[in-house]
Amino acid sequence: SSYHKVLEENRLLYNQVQDLKGAIRVYCRVRPFLPGQQSNGQSTVDYIGEDGNIMIVNPLKQGKDARKVFSFNKVFTTNATQEQIYVDTQPLVRSVLDGYNACIFAYGQTGSGKTYTMSGPDLMTEETWGVNYRALRDLFHISKERADAIKYEVSVQMIEIYNEQLNGLNVPDACLVPVSCTQDVLDLMKIGQKNRAVGATALNERSSRSHSVLTIHVRGRDLVSNSVLKGCLHLVDLAGSERVEKSEAVGERLKEAQHINKSLSALGDVISALAQKSQHIPYRNSKLTQVLQDSLGGHAKTLMFVHINPELNAFGETISTLKFAERVASIELGAAKSNK
Ligand code: ADP
Asked: How far is CA 148 from the centre of its chain?
């Protein structure tokens, strides 16, 4: 019966989830050179191994001093498809339907491909959809498959955190909106974009300096036992991680940069405190970590896509991005890797 099918599926899923439990997974994605850049297509990425290693070369140095290796759960090459990026994330997304909480982050400097990974370049083309829409499509699909056994309700919430202030995008007070298919969510996105009171260029500029969080809440009632489970998935497109030259930043720009630095380092602190199983987890140090508190730590699972821009002039940012990512991954990486 379909109920037994659900149980069996849950058991398989549970095993996969056990593999992920407590582990912070870090995946690295290298953006391809964009059409206009191909003429000088020399890359800081020297080598990408199937073992999750990436070797970066410093264009200003020679010999073995010029090379540095960073190690993650996985490194995706420039030709990885949106589908391939999503596949490993699927069990984590699906676990939300069993009552787990999860967070998926996109980290990297502006222009490294964070929005490409999370949203995709074109909402009208399903093949190019990013993690957000693939996750929603999956959640709706599975909840329909399980409809005989469990009645699910899905709702979404879209917020932006800009200068430590929280703004709801789809509705003024950032409340939950019930949705029943991916199209509902696409429609909401359009409203959200209209609600941002800025033009297209300004929107791009600003979105690179704000964290955008799409939260999917799932509530499922078991039709046999009547028990209720709740899960939630946060999909977070982080503000650009680039350091701002002190001399360049004044006024509004300086304030933005300080808020971004503060919240990204607060996120790093929380994740590494969790990994070290510290007594005190410093959630309260930023709006971002406060918003995500219930989905970071405990039984919640965290995954971070770290984005690399392979251009030579991005070398400095690439190294600082990879160092941040290594710090986030460090403690649990050994355990996570031995699961492979
Ligand atoms: P970010 O969100 O980090 O600022 P974007 O996602 O906007 O960066 O990417 C910057 C540019 O690079 C965009 O034009 C985007 O379409 C392109 N791009 C990013 N990642 C890829 C990729 N994997 N394949 C092809 N183009 C990409």
From this structure: 32
> Which residues form the domain of 240?
2-338
Atom of ligand 1 at shortest range from CA of 121: 16
- Please check if 108 is assigned to a binding site: yes
CATH code: domain of residue 23:
3.40.850.10
Highest mean pLDDT (candidates 24-38, 178-192, 313-327): 313-327
The best mutation among 109, 116, 127 to test binding of ligand 1, ranked by most ligand atoms within 8 Å of the C-beta, falls on 116
Pairing of strands 74-76, 67-71: unpaired
| Percent of the chain whose predicted confidence (pLDDT) is above 90 | 53
- Does residue 267 sit in helix, strand or coil? helix
Write the ipTM.
0.99
Q: Using a 6 Å cutoff on CB, does residue 114 contact ligand 1?
A: yes
Contacts of 283 (CB under 8 A, 6+ apart): 270, 289, 290, 293, 296
* For range 48-53, the mean pLDDT: 87
| Opening angle at CA 44, ends 201 and 243, nearest 5 | 45
Confidence grade of residue 333 (pLDDT, cut at 50, 70, 90): very low
Q: Among 29, 31, 304, name the best residue to mutate to test ligand 1's pocket (greatest count of ligand atoms within 8 A of Cβ).
A: 31
**112 Cβ inside 6 Å of ligand 1:** yes
User: Which pLDDT tens digit goes with each residue over 292-301?
Assistant: 998 898 888 8
Helix ranges, 160-250 (H): 182-195, 200-207
Q: Could you give the number of structural domains in the chain?
A: 1
